[in-house]
Amino acid sequence: MWVAFSVYLSRPWLHSFSRYVSFPGALFIITGLAYIPGYLNAFQVVSLLLDRQPPLRDEDPKLPVTILIAAWNEERGIVETLRKIACQDYSGKINVLVVDNNSTDGTTETALRCAEEFGLDVKCLLETRPGKNHALNHGLQHVETELVITLDADTLLHPSAIRHLVSRYVSSPNDVCAVAGAVLVRNSRATTLARMQEWDYFLGIASTKRLQGMYRSTLVAQGAFSLYRTDSVREVGGWPDAIGEDIVLTWRFFYQGWTVYFEPLAVAFTDVPVRFKHFARQRSRWARGMIEGLKEVKPWQNPVAFSKFLTGVDLVIPYIDVTYTFCWIPGLVLCMFGKFYIVGPLTLLVLPITLLSNLVLYMYQRRVFKRLNLRIRRNRVGFVTYVLLYQMMMSPISVWGYIQEFFQLRRVWK
After folding, report:
1. Can you tell me the distance from the alpha carbon of 206 to that of 187, in angstroms, rounded to the nearest whole number?
2. Where are the alpha helices (DSSP H) in 51-185?
3. Distance, CA of 277 to CA of 262 (rounded, Å)
4. Dihedral of the CA atoms 319, 321, 324, 327 (nearest 10)?
5. pLDDT confidence of 412, banded at 50, 70, 90?
6. Both ends of the chain: CA-CA distance in Å?
7. What pLDDT does 413 receive?
8. What domains can you pick out in the chain, each with its CATH number?
9. pLDDT of 161-175, one tens digit each?
10. pTM for the complete prediction?
């Protein structure tokens, strides 16, 4: 219904724009700028309004778990990570495997000291081959529990994070092989860029994952904080040698007919890039990872209908990013000089629609924070810049990531 309304409303725009780029060209551009994004936004908002999170059958599970941490030069950051693990309210046994990926600092020594200080069962392993996938796969060989949780060495867990993550798994159908946790920003006061990312993680990423989890097809069980069934990871060959190893791993699960959930109450906090250069490298890697997933497992190869549909959505994301980068942004510049070919006064209607959709997402997240006794920090500057500028940063960065993957350019991690 929303797309039909958009098409009806855009007829004058389509007609006038056709005089400059032909009707097929105008239809191609407007579809990428308005019709498909409008459909996806409406689909997300309506899905979240209809969502009712299934109740947890067991809120105090006792299954033993292994936390797998791949670490490279994390001597400073791993102390707080292990401290937060020691503070978990989880009743089951927690084993910790720290895989030192050939660090040049005292990562291993610090982890062992923290284990004794915090009373944790920590085992340190050494993996000399560089690469997160090598470190994780080395650790996987030593996992003896049914469930394994991956955690980044600079990510801090909420006290009930593991309990909620395992609770969601034991309350799920048998075909669920992984549960993604909710990762939020902890260093949002560092720079304006970090403030913007706080809202992206809090509203955009978390809500997208909740939408996907509703359809049992969370597209990325992110390595920063997710739970996996150990045998399932081993059956698909472990973590692949890919820039988006967690994306490809998740899509391999889909190919097997398994499903992936998301648990919004299993919260962890991570540091995000505070400089644009590092932010651009991170997000271009994410874009490359999505393409790697599409190359590894085609959407039509997924046996589960919901997974087929949601991975299929990723096929049109590059199209949206390209039209936004090469049409919307130049159109905005032309608009400033009175040339309303692409962007015009009617475009201002997007702002109240955007604010309304973000309000729906905010209400859901506020309920999560209330249940966890967390407080939403004031961040008005970050919100305004997130609404007005974030997509204008993200689409060109993503396009650069697609180009990098197409030409198989060198991977840059930091």
Report:
1. 17
2. 78-86, 107-118, 132-140, 161-170
3. 30
4. -50
5. low
6. 44
7. 54
8. 2-51+317-406 (no CATH), 65-306 (3.90.550.10)
9. 999 999 999 999 999
10. 0.94
